[in-house]
Amino acid sequence: MSAIEGRLFAAGMPVAALMEKVAQAIFKRVIALYPHPRVRRIGVLVGPGHNGGDALVVARELHFAGYEVLIYRPLSKGKELTGQHGEYVASLGVKFHDQIEPLLDCDLIVDGLFGFGLERSISGEIAEGINRLNAQSQPVISIDLPSGLHTDTGAVLGTAIQANHTLCLGLWKLGLFQDQALAYVGKAELIDFDIPLADIQAVLGDRHPIHRITSTVAIAHLPLPRPQLTHKYKEGHLLAICGSQRYMGAALLCGLGAKASGVGMLTIAVPNSLKPYMSQQLADALVVGCPETASGAIAHLPDSIDLSSFGAIACGCGLTLDGMGVVQAVLESDRPLILDADGLNALAQLGTIPTLCQRQAFTLLTPHPGEFKRLFPPDQDESEDLVRAVRRASEQTGAVVMLKQARTAIGYPDGSVWINPESTPALARGGSGDVLTGLSSGLIAQAIARKIPVEPLVQTAVWWHAQAAISAALARTELGVDAVTLSEFLLQVLPQFTRSGN
Ligand SMILES: NC(=O)C1=CN([C@@H]2O[C@H](COP(=O)(O)OP(=O)(O)OC[C@H]3O[C@@H](n4cnc5c(N)ncnc54)[C@H](O)[C@@H]3O)[C@@H](O)[C@H]2O)[C@@H](O)CC1
Ligand SMILES: [K+]
């Protein structure tokens, strides 16, 4: 962002003009969210840099719009332009304070302490001021990002403002999408200020891109509409190898996710003793019973299963580590493969990188953070930056790596990363991952049958799964989104998007 900003200034855009333009847009958003006189007293936090400069321009406009404005400026020295705005705002009679106390009873706080220029931990009186404010209940709007967050990693540097709204300027800051920032960001919005595309490309063009998964992108890759002339095997044949006596439900949930994907044919391989249960629950799947171990896991696949006859294979949900032999067999096959849960634990034991480097076919790994650490032990720099870790994992193995967390990130071998910006804590529930594995695998099997690119369907699956959960939580609260319900909402939520897409 600062490189892009530098190009605008070099091209002749006056710094003050850009700040004015940006801050006017912020001001408009603030008064739309908190109109006068519903809100009367606004406290504005002003830092020493241009984030503080933005805040002062907003403060000036709020003053003229009739609000009572109070300013907290803990550091009197700062950048020149910020200082000039400060002088003018003070000349209008707006009161400046170097303590937070006078602002504590304001109806609203606008936070312009630090933006992307934060370079070290916040400490001392400023940290205390932020902590006192966080203990209050009035709403907070942060300019660019909540002061105290690292722009890229979202890590809290010392302490950070807990915002209700974050008005991010110009381009999305990666830190806002990192899990560790979520408790601070509130609702994030982008404030556009007409950055020329050429400048964005000149700065970001040759770097590994990071994208947000939007509904438009996700829907564009759905295998819809189906061609008129087709048959079941042309719509994908998925083999899901899953379940054990210990984890029967995982197999069913994987099956329900796959079923919702619309895959043409679904074959499910489970331990022999699960076959009657699965056949009863999933009438449309072909259920194959496998010889089982004494512990009730799949011992090996029966001779009747020819792996090469499937478009894609999903393996791992509810398998237990006793089913490890079967994971080795599918890893050795030349079929596109989706590995989850114990499939991932087995892979970690086999050696993630050497094993995957031998595979030629497409591989998708779907770890949660615990599994991810087992597969890819973190190096020190990465402990705070999971996006970087996911990128490295994918580049090292050639696999697509879906790191399931509050804001799921997908790493691709070409270095690109896709983040799902919209989700719900309702998904923090046993079984929701099994549904996602089934859904992803079913979509991938269809893409393979249709000979369309497989990779984007991973984004589609993550987005679709999250939207189903959001919709289910709206209907039933966040407590009502059990995995079976989630699988039912997958198909309930889709028409509203595909219809508006037509
Ligand atoms: N992106 C853009 O092109 C634009 C950015 N603008 C604003 O400018 C901001 C960036 O401005 P700056 O680069 O001046 O940076 P900031 O305003 O984020 O802060 C930098 C200042 O804070 C001090 N500082 C850093 N860490 C500190 C700490 N822990 N304790 C005490 N002081 C500390 C630095 O010495 C420096 O004076 C953006 O976040 C945005 O709000 C807008 O004004 C205009 C357009
Ligand atoms: K800020």
Automatic annotation (TrEMBL):
<comment type="similarity">
    <text>Belongs to the NnrE/AIBP family.</text>
</comment>
<feature type="binding site">
    <location>
        <position position="144"/>
    </location>
    <ligand>
        <name>(6S)-NADPHX</name>
    </ligand>
</feature>
<feature type="binding site">
    <location>
        <begin position="404"/>
        <end position="408"/>
    </location>
    <ligand>
        <name>AMP</name>
    </ligand>
</feature>
<keyword id="KW-0456">Lyase</keyword>
<keyword id="KW-0521">NADP</keyword>
<feature type="binding site">
    <location>
        <position position="433"/>
    </location>
    <ligand>
        <name>AMP</name>
    </ligand>
</feature>
<comment type="similarity">
    <text>In the C-terminal section; belongs to the NnrD/CARKD family.</text>
</comment>
<feature type="binding site">
    <location>
        <begin position="50"/>
        <end position="54"/>
    </location>
    <ligand>
        <name>(6S)-NADPHX</name>
    </ligand>
</feature>
<dbReference type="InterPro" id="IPR004443">
    <property type="entry name" value="YjeF_N_dom"/>
</dbReference>
<feature type="domain" description="YjeF N-terminal">
    <location>
        <begin position="1"/>
        <end position="201"/>
    </location>
</feature>
<dbReference type="Pfam" id="PF03853">
    <property type="entry name" value="YjeF_N"/>
</dbReference>
<feature type="binding site">
    <location>
        <position position="51"/>
    </location>
    <ligand>
        <name>K(+)</name>
    </ligand>
</feature>
<keyword id="KW-0067">ATP-binding</keyword>
<feature type="binding site">
    <location>
        <position position="147"/>
    </location>
    <ligand>
        <name>K(+)</name>
    </ligand>
</feature>
<feature type="binding site">
    <location>
        <position position="368"/>
    </location>
    <ligand>
        <name>(6S)-NADPHX</name>
    </ligand>
</feature>
<feature type="binding site">
    <location>
        <position position="434"/>
    </location>
    <ligand>
        <name>(6S)-NADPHX</name>
    </ligand>
</feature>
<keyword id="KW-0547">Nucleotide-binding</keyword>
<keyword id="KW-0511">Multifunctional enzyme</keyword>
<dbReference type="InterPro" id="IPR029056">
    <property type="entry name" value="Ribokinase-like"/>
</dbReference>
<feature type="binding site">
    <location>
        <position position="111"/>
    </location>
    <ligand>
        <name>K(+)</name>
    </ligand>
</feature>
<comment type="function">
    <text>Catalyzes the dehydration of the S-form of NAD(P)HX at the expense of ADP, which is converted to AMP. Together with NAD(P)HX epimerase, which catalyzes the epimerization of the S- and R-forms, the enzyme allows the repair of both epimers of NAD(P)HX, a damaged form of NAD(P)H that is a result of enzymatic or heat-dependent hydration.</text>
</comment>
<protein>
    <recommendedName>
        <fullName>Bifunctional NAD(P)H-hydrate repair enzyme</fullName>
        <ecNumber>4.2.1.136</ecNumber>
        <ecNumber>5.1.99.6</ecNumber>
    </recommendedName>
</protein>
<keyword id="KW-0479">Metal-binding</keyword>
<feature type="binding site">
    <location>
        <position position="250"/>
    </location>
    <ligand>
        <name>(6S)-NADPHX</name>
    </ligand>
</feature>
<feature type="binding site">
    <location>
        <position position="318"/>
    </location>
    <ligand>
        <name>(6S)-NADPHX</name>
    </ligand>
</feature>
<feature type="binding site">
    <location>
        <begin position="115"/>
        <end position="121"/>
    </location>
    <ligand>
        <name>(6S)-NADPHX</name>
    </ligand>
</feature>
<dbReference type="InterPro" id="IPR000631">
    <property type="entry name" value="CARKD"/>
</dbReference>
<keyword id="KW-0630">Potassium</keyword>
<keyword id="KW-0520">NAD</keyword>
<comment type="function">
    <text>Bifunctional enzyme that catalyzes the epimerization of the S- and R-forms of NAD(P)HX and the dehydration of the S-form of NAD(P)HX at the expense of ADP, which is converted to AMP. This allows the repair of both epimers of NAD(P)HX, a damaged form of NAD(P)H that is a result of enzymatic or heat-dependent hydration.</text>
</comment>
<dbReference type="InterPro" id="IPR030677">
    <property type="entry name" value="Nnr"/>
</dbReference>
<dbReference type="Pfam" id="PF01256">
    <property type="entry name" value="Carb_kinase"/>
</dbReference>
<keyword id="KW-0413">Isomerase</keyword>
<feature type="domain" description="YjeF C-terminal">
    <location>
        <begin position="215"/>
        <end position="497"/>
    </location>
</feature>
<comment type="subunit">
    <text>Homotetramer.</text>
</comment>
<dbReference type="InterPro" id="IPR036652">
    <property type="entry name" value="YjeF_N_dom_sf"/>
</dbReference>
